[in-house]
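Intended use. Records like the one below are meant for learning the mapping from a protein sequence to its folded structure. Do not use them to infer anything beyond what is encoded.
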Amino acid sequence: MEGLSDVASFATKLKNTLIQYHSIEEDKWRVAKKTKDVTVWRKPSEEFNGYLVLKGYVIKRATKPKVL
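Structure written out for the chain above:
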């Protein structure tokens, strides 16, 4: 059952990596693009060539439809 232990090890490593990503301080992120509804931040990855991307958006509440 060596394969299952590899999966468990990989899952633990992935979990720890995602927790680390969510713990990155806000001042480490830089705005990549901003519109009135969406802001996209990026940070150079320490694990691969490229960037980690973080996005935020505003959802406008729809107005209530008029009842005829």
